[in-house]
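step=encode ok
step=design start
structure_in=
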């Protein structure tokens, strides 16, 4: 399993060793906390959906829709103050769909910085036309 080369020591990098690229960084707000005092999983899922759409949108060169979340694992709780970095890589390009693996790392405890993986997910996006129907992906450069 890939991880930031400097996990546990320094800031989350711009790229993981497996080529996954940074597509989003965001810090949750107090409004995103659940009854346990951790960050609400639904908020994280929404961010993962946004982050996951970045590479498929580039490939589709137009409208896309999320068709499936094939896997979603919350490995560690996310806390207020964590800075989240979302990495994505394309795992499959089909006729109309693109599947990505998204991994989320939290930077926490700035005084003695730690980088921990908190979430990973596989999502599939479909290129759609003006009527919302699947359309073939354009030929890639
Ligand atoms: C996305 C949507 C247009 C696809 O239409 P569809 O008729 O179901 O599409 P198809 O069965 O032709 O499949 C289209 C592609 O999606 C893939 N796909 C469909 N269901 C899938 C699933 N459960 N997991 C992974 N891929 C899936 C197919 O394999 C196909 O990919 P390919 O062409 O690269 O081989 C339609 O399902 C839709 O509008 N869904 C709602 C999307 C939405 O609103 N998302 C936001 C969250 S609510």
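sequence_out=
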């Amino acid at each position: 399993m890939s991880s930031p080369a400097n996990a546990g020591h320094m800031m989350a990098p711009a790229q993981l060793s497996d080529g996954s690229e940074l597509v989003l960084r965001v810090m949750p707000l107090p409004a995103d906390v659940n009854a346990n005092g951790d960050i609400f999983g639904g908020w994280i899922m929404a961010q993962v959906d946004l982050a996951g759409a970045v590479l498929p949108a580039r490939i589709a060169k137009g409208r896309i829709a999320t068709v499936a979340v094939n896997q979603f694992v919350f490995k560690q709780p996310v806390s207020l103050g964590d800075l989240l970095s979302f990495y994505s890589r394309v795992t499959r390009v089909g006729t109309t769909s693109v599947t990505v693996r998204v991994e989320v790392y939290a930077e926490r405890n700035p005084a003695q910085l730690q980088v921990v993986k908190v979430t990973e997910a596989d999502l599939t996006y479909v290129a759609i036309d003006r009527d919302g129907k699947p359309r073939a992906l354009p030929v890639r450069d």
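step=design ok
step=annotate ok -> The CA atoms of residues 96 and 114 lie 39 Å apart.
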